[in-house]
Task: structure prediction
Amino acid sequence: MQPCFTKFRSPKALIRQIFLSAITLSRKMELFVGSEHSDLYQKYRPTYPPELYAFIANFCKTGRGSLDTAVDVGCGTGLSTLPLCKYFNKVIGVDVSETQINTARTTHRQSNLMFHTSNGEQLQFLSDCSVDLVTVAQAMHWIEPEPFYREVTRILRPSGSLVVYGYGINTIDSNEGNKIIDKFYSHDLEGFWDSRRRHIDNLYQEISLPFSGSERISDFVIQNRWSVSDVVGYLSTWSAWQRYLKQHPDSNLLVEIQRHLENIYQDQKITITWPVFVLLGRKESEKKP
Ligand SMILES: C[S@@+](CC[C@H](N)C(=O)[O-])C[C@H]1O[C@@H](n2cnc3c(N)ncnc32)[C@H](O)[C@@H]1O
Result:
């Protein structure tokens, strides 16, 4: 059985781990701190399909887990946290960025929903065996797996579930439009993507969960009918664009893209689709004596 407590490491190893986490964290944090980025994120990022949350709740139930407490780590502005409120008595969104948490708090007001600023690798505010579901949406590639999985194993109740999911690169319903977005993604922003972005490109194939029997599904997609401005707004939320802008504050790349897309679509809506990947795992149940 997986234990409900953390194994103690030597003080030297612990200090090294904290030091390394602090360095990687400060590098990652620069991407999510700006309140403007947070507002863009809340406005233009796609939401996940409601069926995905019904599926996750069902996964918890079939594992004989209860639907009491869910924790969404790397919750950002709460887009991935709010839908859990329909199924769980208590939902806690956790994010390392104070700005994201502030936007989440002001945007979503629900009696069974709360937000907490913390990094996923250190969840001391949650006690051992107190959580039925941990989710991570579009954020696992930012989190250090080893300390995070140790924390997940500690806080999950026996039979509790861990669900890690996200979406890959979008396509739109015009070859010409796809070429424009592809050039922006692969050529213009080349060198501005964090190396961890490859995990999104390969739909988390290199990421595995710490529990035996974990599974992977790719049955869901996110699909929206968006205006050209919505699509361009979404492109502006890309972390590589935010980095690019810091070096090229006067860039009109997105203005150009908007113009090209308007030429193709005129006033018509764009169908935009993202492939969704889902990794599901369960902590072992308590063995009967
Ligand atoms: C791409 S956003 C995903 C937000 C949300 N889950 C969604 O699906 O829309 C990634 C989020 O992970 C957070 N993050 C990055 N590293 C983290 C860490 N080590 N612990 C907790 N959150 C982290 C960032 O602050 C950011 O809000």
Notes: The chain is about 40% helix and 20% strand.
